[in-house]
Design a protein that fits this description.
By secondary structure, this protein is of the alpha/beta class. 47% of the residues lie in helices and 11% in strands.
Length: 628
């Protein structure tokens, strides 16, 4: 077993110090032994005088300036053998020397030795030296630990990671789905590589580029691609690394970061999650954080202050642009704001192709079908989707990823892990009617999105699921489409009421009712799709991306609030009646679909529409439905 020398030193030093002092005290406290004599027995001064008067003392050796004596005396109790005895003499006994002379006793006086003082001095020096040495070793060891005691003097230093030539392993070819953002940032790389192309016509290098977008859209990946393409010194740091509990540390780190950047200009600085330090000043309840505000003020000054900076381009990323300070967003600091949003169909195809390079896909796998199945997915979501499919492939001991694994991975990412299938019972039949109710209404309402799959296999908190493929290429949504979605969401509750009666409805429609209430409220208060007229009575329910307001205030009177509630109820009831009407008129096909769903547990969209077409006319929907 290997034992660290630090552990040995930690245990050995205290033992040596304690042993040294014990030895020093024992040695210095016995002057007789230092003189080379041995006095194993002590004698009182009175008994010594009795022995002297009786003529039993033969010699006396004085030590310590006459305070201690080693006496050789004949002891009659020990057959008159000579014995060395130690006697502590009084400080004032001038008659003793005279008595010793009259008794013809050999008298020797030994000078005081300085060994005790020498060892005492050494002892007083050795302990502090050992203590300082041990502390030095501990501080030296802790200096390698981030934030350790050894770095107490480095609080004000920047913690940015520096690379003279950033080797991130990411190029622009590795980034897909955000072509507009890539084009904007490609100019930044050209600025750094060939600045004369722009300065020749009077163009100025932008000082900052702010990447704005939801989580997972590739903001940090873009920064890595810029660093990999530019080939200039690169600093990377998180916004939270500026702020500390000590006031002034964040501002000091900002100054140190820009000082290093100026020494290596032209260069790039990437600040991830800049909202941690760039929030609006004084916007918090009861005042802002002084340390964070000082850090922000220093950052504003360094980016575009009295001195300014040349050749330094700052790239920052955030998903909360609504909370950033206005002074930080003005031209001259962040000259460009690049929106990095979720990719469209073409972008998702590109992202999937990038992440499929190191995946073994079966020949029948269609990247386009996967892209159409995943509207709203970000780049991170798509990467996670293919990774989950690869994990499922390995678990099932297959040699390549098939569409079956892709389908299961999509379901798992959206709805959660697959649960244990329900046994054939009343509950399973009730859930089957609920899910078929959603699907039949979504199929027979013209403006509803097509059904992709109906399943009774539990996933996450849901006991059954009905999947629709939204028309994500359509940026605008019509009033009829919103009404159709409300009717489709209420199809499950309508089926329960029509099949089992009003008293047998379940709590399974709780989530559906929340969606209905939200869509109806937005139709009334934001989109002007009610009898109240073309009025927007409320602002956006949630701030951009992740930011949220602290307080919401009513923007209308109580009378308008009452009319809003009535309009919401009317819209929801209209969708409810439409759903119940479709359920009543198609009871025969619903019963057949429920029996088939209980038997197979999953029905895909194409098979579902074919069965419904045998009983009634299915309206055409202008949308491609991928078959996974």
């Amino acid at each position: 077993m290997k034992i660290s020398w630090r552990i040995v030193l930690l245990w050995t030093l205290p033992a040596l110090v304690i042993g040294f002092f014990l030895w020093q005290g024992a040695f210095a406290s016995n002057p007789a032994e230092m003189g080379g004599n041995t006095a194993s027995t002590r004698m009182t001064y009175g008994r010594f005088l009795e022995y002297l008067d009786a003529g039993r003392v033969t010699s006396v050796d004085l030590y310590e300036g006459g305070r201690t004596a080693i006496v050789q005396a004949v002891d009659p109790q020990l057959d008159n053998r000579v014995q060395n005895l130690r006697v502590d003499l009084p400080t004032k006994a001038p008659e003793l020397i005279e008595k010793l002379r009259k008794a013809n006793v050999r008298l020797e006086s030994h000078p005081i030795r300085n060994d005790g003082a020498l060892w005492g001095l050494l002892g007083n020096l050795i302990f502090p030296v050992l203590l300082i040495g041990a502390l030095f070793l501990l501080f030296r060891r802790s200096s390698n630990i981030p934030g350790g005691p050894g770095q107490a003097m480095n609080f004000g230093k920047s913690r940015a990671r520096f690379q003279m030539e950033a080797k991130t392993g990411v190029k622009f070819d590795d980034v897909a789905g955000i072509e507009e953002a890539k084009e904007e940032l490609q100019e930044v790389v050209t600025f750094l590589k060939q600045p004369e192309r722009f300065t020749a016509v009077g163009a100025r290098i932008p000082k900052g580029v702010l990447l704005v977008g939801p989580p997972g859209t590739g903001k940090t990946l873009l920064a890595k691609a810029i660093a990999g393409e530019a080939g200039v010194p690169f600093f990377s740091i998180s916004g939270s690394e500026f702020v500390e509990m000590f006031v002034g540390v964040g501002a000091s780190r900002v100054r140190d970061l820009f000082k290093k950047a100026k020494e290596n200009a032209p260069c790039l600085i990437f600040i991830d999650e800049i909202d941690a330090v760039g929030r609006q000043r004084g916007a918090g309840i009861g005042g802002g954080n002084d340390e964070r505000e000082q850090t922000l003020n220093q950052l504003l000054t360094e980016m575009d202050g009295f001195e300014g900076n040349t050749g330094i381009i700052i790239i920052a990323a955030t998903n909360r642009p609504d909370v950033l300070d206005a002074a930080l967003l003005r031209p001259g600091r962040f000259d460009r704001q690049v929106i990095v949003d979720a990719p469209d169909l073409k972008g998702r195809i590109g992202v999937l192709e990038v992440h499929a390079r190191n995946k073994k896909l079966a020949p029948e796998v269609s990247i386009e079908a996967i892209a159409r199945r995943t509207p709203g997915f970000t780049g991170a979501d798509l990467a996670n989707l293919l990774n989950e499919a690869a994990i499922l492939t390995a678990r099932r001991r297959k040699e390549a990823i098939t569409m079956h694994e892709i389908d299961d991975a999509v379901d798992r990412v959206i709805a959660g892990m697959e649960g244990t299938p329900l046994v054939d019972s009343k509950t399973k039949r009730l859930i089957a009617y609920h899910e078929v109710g959603h699907a039949i209404v979504g199929t027979l309402v013209k403006d509803h999105d097509p059904v992709q799959k109906v399943t009774l296999i539990p996933r996450g908190q849901a006991r059954g699921l009905t999947w629709f493929v939204p028309d994500e290429e359509q940026g605008l949504v019509t009033r009829s489409q919103l009404i159709a979605r409300i009717a489709g969401a209420l199809g499950g509750r309508a089926a329960e009421e029509e099949i089992f009666g009003h008293d047998e409805v379940t709590t399974g429609a709780g989530g559906d009712l929340q969606q209905v209430a939200e869509m109806a409220r937005q139709m009334v208060t934001r989109y002007g799709m009610s009898d109240l007229g073309p009025l927007s009575l409320e602002g956006q329910g949630g701030e951009v991306f992740l930011g949220g307001g602290l307080m919401n205030r009513a923007e209308y009177s109580e009378e308008i609030a009452t009319r809003i509630d009535a309009q919401i109820r009317e819209i929801a009831e209209r969708g409810h009646q439409l759903a119940r009407k479709i359920i009543r008129e198609n009871r025969e096909v619903i019963d057949r679909l429920v029996d088939l769903l209980i038997e197979k547990e999953t029905i895909d969209g194409e098979e579902f529409r074919q069965i419904v077409a045998e009983y009634t006319e299915v309206p055409e929907k202008d949308q491609f439905v991928p078959q996974l």
